[in-house]
Amino acid sequence: MGRLLLLLLLAVSASASEDAFIGVNIGTDLSDMPSPTQVVALLKAQNIKHIRLYDADKAMLLALAKTGISVTVSVPNDQLLGIGQSNATAANWVTRNILAHVPTTNITAIAVGSEVLTTLSNAAPILVSAMKFIQSALVASNLDSQIIVSTPHSSSIILDSFPPSQAFFNRSWDPIMVPLLKFLQSTGSYLMLNVYPYYDYMQSNGVIPLDYALFRPLPPNKEAVDSNTLLHYTNVFDAIVDAAYFAMSYLNFTNIPIVVTESGWPSKGDSSEPDATLDNANTYNSNLIRHVLNNTGTPKHPGIAVSTYIYELYNEDLRPGSVSEQNWGLFHASGVPVYILHLTGSGTVLANDTTNQTYCVARDSADPKMLQAALDWACGPGKVNCSPLLQGQPCYLPDSVIAHATYAFDSYYHQMAMADGTCNFNGVATITTTDPSHGSCRFPGSAGSNSTFVNGTALAPSSNSTVSGCRSQHFYNTFSRSMVFGVSLLSAVFL
């Protein structure tokens, strides 16, 4: 991608024999990019134990020294040709970027290039050579048991990805993929794969339901079923990962694990990307983190962790392209969260997780008729106690639909334990960290709340909007191709 990225990892214990981890990409296309010292300070504040650099930036590696943080460095694409054609060049690269920093800096892996097969076709023939030359230099330095070598791939190298059991790699890459997989197998490495359900959803023209892309719960009869294996899929992420597993098995490689090196959801987009929202980004990343750290695995390999890197740590205001390209971050450059991740019950809590201080409010730009319908639903089937909204009661004023809807939405959100997807109401609600309480009207979640909850099991209406395809830096195959979906949109009904 021609720029420095960091991938941060949270190490957590999992029930299987190996630990699961979550990573976060950190791009540097910011007009006010934090210094390496500031980045490391954020890593420490967030209790990040593992990171990945998309190059081997000297200043960053020095800042990481003596922190104990595990570091993955990368060979940038623009250096790939030289390293892939010269063992000596590869050895010099390792001497300069690895030996100069270990063991003070805890380097544990090297990613050789990024999406080389799909973005740098002229370098593809020497990709495996570059990996082997780097590996040889590590062996010569007795570091091969401490540092693994791999290369990230776009998921677009997988064709006919649904049903997963019929997936295969683009066969034009077989002369490269076969020796590449042999290298990963012989060195005990793993396949690095970039997985973006957001783009698969965008390109599906409504075939993929939003809930299915966001890990939202689906009833068993709404799950996607692989007709060959009868495996049930509850989310796009697992289906793509399993498609990669099946594609490898098609080439007779069945014991290479997968690490997802990029995955995420943008928090803002232009008019062509209406589902790039704070709520959807929060829902996707929170659910992804919980899914990975619960060590759920995939239907093909249940219980086997699929460690994943979230794209990305910072919003990058200098990124070219659509609005969404600048809004994948979890944090602003200042270190202030773009939104608050909901990680309660995931087994770990990020330092920026203040779930008990979040609120669900009506969007200022929401259609009044849709707000009224959502308000009626919350105070009816949603079983929210709306008595504080009656005339003469603490939350009657201001007497407006948006004010009353905000109270009802927040009441339902906290009534449902702030579960992901319960602050949506067909897109007219959003999550905020600002307490909407005013005067004697105290909102749920606020100290001194005056509300009374009524337990209920009704689910709040969720968004079922669809969008057309978009142009992005990432070009991924449409997941819905050859798809036999057992999934339908969960319709939202206001009574």
Structural summary, described in words:
- This protein has 495 residues and is of the alpha/beta class.
- The protein has 2 domains: 22-331, TIM Barrel, CATH 3.20.20.80; 356-464, Methane Monooxygenase Hydroxylase, Chain G, domain 1.
- The protein has 13 helices and 16 strands.
- The chain has helices spanning 36-45, 58-63, 80-84, 87-99, 116-119, 127-140, 174-187, 197-203, 210-213, 236-250, 278-293, 368-379, 401-415, and strands spanning 5-12, 20-27, 50-53, 70-75, 106-112, 148-150, 152-154, 158-159, 168-169, 191-194, 224-225, 232-233, 258-263, 308-311, 359-362, 429-432.
- The strands form 4 sheets. It has a 10-stranded mixed beta sheet.
- Helix 6 (127-140) runs parallel beside helix 7.
- The chain is globular and about 80 Å long.
- 51% of the residues are buried.
- Its EC number is 3.2.1.39.
- It is an enzyme of class 3 (hydrolase).
- This is glucan endo-1,3-beta-D-glucosidase.
- One of its GO terms (cellular component) is plasmodesma.
**What's the CATH superfamily of the largest domain, by name?**
Glycosidases
- Using only C-alpha atoms, the radius of gyration works out to 24 Å
Shape: globular
Helix-strand makeup class: alpha/beta
Helix content: 25-40%
DSSP strand tally? 16
Determine the number of helices (DSSP H or I, runs of at least 4 residues).
13
Q: Tell me which CATH architecture of the largest domain applies here.
A: Alpha-Beta Barrel
* CATH top level assignment of the largest domain: Alpha Beta
- List SSEs in N-to-C order: EEHEHEHHEHHEEEEHEHHEEHEHEEHHE
Low-confidence stretches: 1-17, 448-459, 462-495
CATH level-3 fold name of the largest domain: TIM Barrel
Distance between the termini: 49 Å
Q: What portion of the residues fall into strands of 2 or more residues? A: 5-15%
Number of domains: 2
Please summarize the sheet with the most strands: 10 strands, mixed
Name the strands of the widest sheet in spatial order: 6-5-4-3-1-2-14-13-10-7
Overall pLDDT level: 81
Organism: Rhododendron simsii (Sims's rhododendron)
Family: Belongs to the glycosyl hydrolase 17 family.
Protein name: glucan endo-1,3-beta-D-glucosidase
EC number: 3.2.1.39
